[in-house]
TrEMBL record:
Classification via Pfam families: Ribosomal_S8e (PF01201)
Keyword rRNA processing: yes
InterPro entries noted in UniProt: NSA2_fam, Ribosomal_Se8/biogenesis_NSA2
Protein family: Belongs to the eukaryotic ribosomal protein eS8 family. Ribosome biogenesis protein NSA2 subfamily.
Gene3D superfamilies reported in the protein's UniProt record: 2.40.10.310
Provenance organism: Hibiscus trionum
A GO BP annotation: rRNA processing
Superkingdom, taxonomy of origin: Eukaryota
Alphabetized UniProt keyword annotations: Nucleus, Ribosome biogenesis, rRNA processing
Name of protein: Ribosome biogenesis protein NSA2 homolog
Subcellular localization: Nucleus, Nucleolus
Principal place of residence: nucleus
Family annotation (PANTHER family): RIBOSOME BIOGENESIS PROTEIN NSA2 HOMOLOG
Record GO cellular component, one term: nucleolus
Amino acid sequence: MDRENTTRAKVLSNTIKQKKERESWKMGGPYTQGEKMFFLCYVRPVAEDEMFKVIRSGKRKTKQWKRMVTKCTFVGLGFTRKPPKYERFIRPSGLRFTKAHVTHPELKCTFNLDIIGVKKNPNGPMYTSLGVMTKGTIIEVNASELGLVMPAGNVVWGKYAQVTNNPESDGCINAVLLV
């Protein structure tokens, strides 16, 4: 009798573990900040063909080492382009964003905040370093306008937020503040 109960418990725990694994795969894996884990939206993997467009150069159009980013990007305030001859990744100025519509989950209010940087893109570290923003990307926003204060009395300047829309199709960046 006891043996049957233990097998049922094992089967139940295994099914729960498998369900959690499937959910974490769907969400693009957990993003951890301290001990918190965030699974806010479904993250579809983006292929390189979809992310970049090959730029052919040279007199006979035989050189194919340049790539143009076709997704929305963030570049810092002091960003200057390299000379065109040495630039491997071209980030078009029409697809650059500096602000995001960030919703505070507890206050249920949306604020238009400045983006400080891209912290993690679920598609890979190369997209993070390029500043590409797709659905599920963790960005850092300037939260000084929100008036958040730490227990010590310090004002919070930067806060993390996760992008919840496809910016290239909507024309703006919507995100949820990670509290």
